[in-house]
C-alpha cells in the first residue's frame, strides 16, 4: 500500500523495510522487533514517545532498563523461554514512562519468519494500567463481599442453631401436648431450612445450582429428620436443570415443607405411605417440580393453598413467588403440588 501511494505521487517505491517502519510508526500500538540474537533491532515511534528515550538507547537489550526491577526477571524469563521454543507469548510488566510513572503494559509477541526461515520476533504492547487497576479493584471488592457474606452466614447459622435449641427446650417443658408438638415442629423447620441455606452458601458465586441433586438431598434429609418410619421416597429426576441460587433456594425450601408436611400429617396412625419427587422439563425454557403423596389429602373445608392449621402450606405460596414459579396444589386424593418456573 505504501509503495502504491509512492508510485501514485510520482515518488520512488519504498523498500519492504521502509514500508514496515512507516506503517509501524503510524500504528496505534507500541511495536518492537527482535533478531536472532534476541536483541531488539526496532521500536516504533509510539514506543519511543512512551519511554522518551532515543532509539539507540532502546536497541539490543537497552529496553530492559525501563522495566520495573520487580518484573524484570520474570519478563526476561518469559521472553527467553518463548524464544527458545519458537512460540507465541503474552506477558505483562511495568515500564517506566517518559514522566517517570510506572505503567502496566500487556505485551504479546510471535515468531517472525522471512522466506520461511525464523528471523526473530515481532511484538506489540498496549498500556492497560487503568483496566488492570479496575480489575484489581473489582477483585478486592469481591473478596470483601465474600468475607462479609461468610461472617453473615456464620452469624445467621449460629442464631438459627440457638433458635432451634431454644424451641426444643421449650417443647420439652410444655405441659400441653399440642404446644409441645408445635414447638418441636418449628424447631425442625428452622433446622432444615438452615441446612438448605448452608448448602446454597457453598455454591460458588458464578455457578448455578444443579437442582436435581439439591432437591434429592433436601427431600431425603427432611424425611430422615422427621423420624417417620414406613414412608418410601420415590425420585424421578429425569432432566438436569441448573438454576441461580436465588431461584433454587425457595424451590428447595418448598420441597422441604411438602415432605415434612406429608411425613407428619398425611399418614395418621403410623400407616405406611409414599412420597414422590419429580423434576423434569415441561417444555422449552420451562422446568417443573412435582411432589405427590398418597396420604389422606387435605380436609375439604380448607381452601386450596390456605389450609388452616398447617404452617408449612401457608409458607409454600410465598416461597413460590420468590422462585418466580406458578403453584398448583391439589389435596383431593393425597396431596399433589406442581411448580413450574422459567429455566434455561
Automatic annotation (TrEMBL):
MF-aspect GO terms: protein histidine kinase activity
One of the Pfam families matching this protein, by short name: PAS_3
Enzyme Commission number(s): 2.7.13.3
Keyword annotations of the record: Coiled coil, Kinase, Phosphoprotein, Transferase
Coiled coil: 125-155
CDD domains per the UniProt record, alphabetical: PAS
Statement: the UniProt record of this protein carries the keyword RNA-binding: no
Sequence ranges assigned to domain PAC in this UniProt record: 89-140
Catalytic activity: ATP + protein L-histidine = ADP + protein N-phospho-L-histidine
InterPro entries, per the entry: HATPase_C_sf, HATPase_dom, PAC, PAS, PAS-assoc_C, PAS-like_dom_sf, PAS_fold_3, Sensor_kinase/Photoreceptor
Entry superkingdom: Bacteria
PANTHER family recorded: PAC DOMAIN-CONTAINING PROTEIN (PTHR43304:SF1), PHYTOCHROME-LIKE PROTEIN CPH1 (PTHR43304)
NCBIfam families linked to this entry: sensory_box (TIGR00229)
Protein name: histidine kinase
Protein source organism: Roseicella aquatilis
